# Entry
Amino acid sequence: MLERLFKLKENNTDIKTEILAGITTFLTMAYILAVNPMILENAGMPFAGVLTATVLVAGLSSILMGLVANLPFALAPGMGINAFFTFSMVIGMKIPWQTALGAVFVSGVIFMLMTLFKLREAIVRAIPHCVRLGVAAGIGLFLCLLALKQAGFIVANPATLVGFGGFSPQVLIFLVGLAFTILVEHRKIHGSLLLGIIFTTIIAISHGRIWSGEAFVAVPQNYTGSPDFTSVFFQLDIRGALSFGIAGAVFTLLFTDLFDSISTFLGVASVANMIDENGEPRNFQKALLVDAISTTMSGLFGSSSGTTYVESAAGVEQGGRTGLTALVTGFLFFPFLWFAPMLQMIPACAVSPALLLVGFFMLRAISGIDWKDYETGLPAFVALILIPFTFSISQGISWSLILFVLLKIYSGKIKEVELMQWVVVAFAGLALYLS
# Structure
């Protein structure tokens, strides 16, 4: 049955290899179970409810990718997108989290329509390569800033805006956890980020119990509990999301998830040589449709947008070549529906090392930018600095796109600006006006 469903022999793989690849992918991305609820908790959303949503989105989306597209790609709520949801939409734009969930749902529906009518690729092609790299790096720097802030390593300073927070117990534990996480990552141990979170949490729990000091981590009486299907499940406000005032936020959700998923498909498929005769990833349209469904489910279940994870490359390196890998990864998420109390005791200083390294991984995109060319370097630079400095991903994207077109006009190359690029820049300007 598995052979007929996933065509294992045709893809030069077997059941054992696919299962090991699925476990490997899960270990590399399981950190999202702790990180996503902790980030969305800043938006006023209950940790347990968001954890339930995270598990459902990751599990069901990955299984769907395996069954529909027969690809070894796993999905979960996206890093960067969850930060935009929390700090730009809910905290920055004062949008209620229920309305923000409605925006996620609406963007998912738009994704599906764009995929069915094959418009998604056209829009992605209209986004200049330099802007894509600048945005990816800018989000990475944004996550680094967020990680240092959560750990207490940097704090607000009225004289210099930000400053060093001092050597508090949380900061020292963060530094120890960061050193350990870097060590296991450097040794290429699968699940390094997850291991870092576990190690740092143990150190944090020990403070005030095994050695002197005031305990700041509350240990729950029970480590298991029932899934929370009430607090955020189907609590989205679709009517509010359709208001003109948050069209800019919907556009940013659309662009960020759009670029993130397609770049992941292209990168991982190229590494695994899963390219069809047209040079596109195998079953590309089906994969895009599943990604769109994942985003729609996220809005319904109570999380920021779901997207395809670049950590899927770890499973591919392990030999995963079919949807059975994604199926195994998806099923491994479901037991965590009952571990909300255990995950809830993970402190921010334990998640921060993983968040900082994810930011570092994304920041490496700047190596592909041609800094000697003003027409490409400046738009990338604007995205890179504005995303963390304005604490807004949408500001960085929008100004970067507008500057790209302005530089083309200044250089007398206005004819090089494609029609779809004018459309995208118009939406970018609208996003700025409405923000």
Summary: The chain has one domain: 2-434.
